[in-house]
Amino acid sequence: MIIAAVVGLVVVMAGCGTALAVFNSRNANQTTSTGLGTGVPSPTPAGSPTPIASPIPTPAGGARVANQTLSVALPPGWQLNSKDSEYISLYDPNGYPMTIGSGVSSPAQTAQQNKATVDQVFTQKYPDTKACPNSKVTAGSVSGAPGLFWQLCFTLTSGSQSEPVGAPMFAGANADGSVYYVVFLLSPLASMTSFSAEAKPVVASIQWSLK
After folding, report:
1. pTM to 2 decimals?
2. Domains of the chain, start order
């Protein structure tokens, strides 16, 4: 399952010592988050495989980063961490990671099935993974790709260090399930709301190459 491989890359990135070092320097308390889905663009009309004609918003001063399946704008202070043919991984100025991915699904899967795949991968890596308190699954879209928004909470560990974190998520699919779309954020729980708000212009700037 291709989407599981992309999620696995995110899990590896999330579990690295660098992320823990950044998170451990901040006080993390559970908070209620408005989530990644609040304020993102509404779905485009069904049956329109061509790119949206209106300009793709670019945060002021940002440069675009692209691969074979998507492009995204980097606001000032954001950095490219890594990319391959299906995913682009970024860091915000605080060192919090954001990963965006898209590719061909084989076999085809719905947005709900893609969400289930994401949940399974994180639960296998982090057994305490669960829906964040006061959060819920909502339907919406990212740059015309319909899907589901939700939040996962779990604990990162490395040696004797541990940190409770929050991960706002998006998983989507095209009409026939042959293409997946994913967006993941990761931060200490106390920073989840602010990081989600900070990332919204970046999410809004995403342009998918696969329809």
Report:
1. 0.77
2. 2-208 (3.40.1000.10)
